[in-house]
Amino acid sequence: MDPETFAARTEAVKARLYRMAYLYLGSEADALEAVDEAVYQALRALKKLRQPEFFETWLTRILINECHRELRRRKRLVGEEALRSCAGPDAYDALPLREAVLRLPEELRLVVILRFFAGYTQAETAAALEIPQGTVATRQRRALALLRLELGEEEQP
């Protein structure tokens, strides 16, 4: 793949990548930084891409790794309480669904973010996370059950 094709394909999925990074990191600035870093890392490793038809999945995996790196860095620097407070006073962050998704275990949260917020199919999610498609379905069911339970409890006075 040549750099012009890389740029065009990256531009086509950049909004989707940003949405996923924002949901994962909870900060607009960190999401922009993660997407930029993922695109940079992908450009540097472009020769390692064996199958160009899996470009989006490959780039998504790089972004997920970058988000993990950022979360580890945050945890080292500021601890768990400060991590929650750095999301900012955005109205979207105050929604019960957002808080419930953030409380899910990481493996379930990733599936929910990719499937429902980034718009990935089950097969794309499985490829991005490098797990079997059946595992994606199981994690999705578990996550939705936990979200229903948690959001159902919050609605009661």
Indicate the topology:
Layout: H1 3-25, H2 28-44, H3 55-85, H4 96-103, H5 106-117, H6 122-129, H7 133-155
Helix pairs in contact: 1-2, 1-3, 1-5, 2-3, 3-6, 4-7, 5-7, 6-7
Detailed description of the structure:
The chain has helices spanning 3-25, 28-44, 55-85, 96-103, 106-117, 122-129, 133-155. With 157 residues, it is mainly alpha-helical. α5 (106-117) packs across α7 (133-155). Mean pLDDT is 80; it is low at 79-94.
Task: Give descriptors for this structure.
78% helix, mainly alpha, 0% strand, 157 residues
Compact description:
It is built from seven helices and no strands.
Rg, Cα atoms, Å: 16 Å
Please estimate the helix content.
Answer: over 70%
The sequence of SSEs as H and E is: HHHHHHH
| E-strand count | 0
Global mean pLDDT: 80
Query: Which structural class do you get from the secondary structure elements?
Result: mainly alpha
Q: What about the largest sheet?
A: none
Shape: globular
Unreliable stretches = 79-94
Distance between the termini: 57 Å
Q: Helix segment count? A: 7
Strand % is under 5%
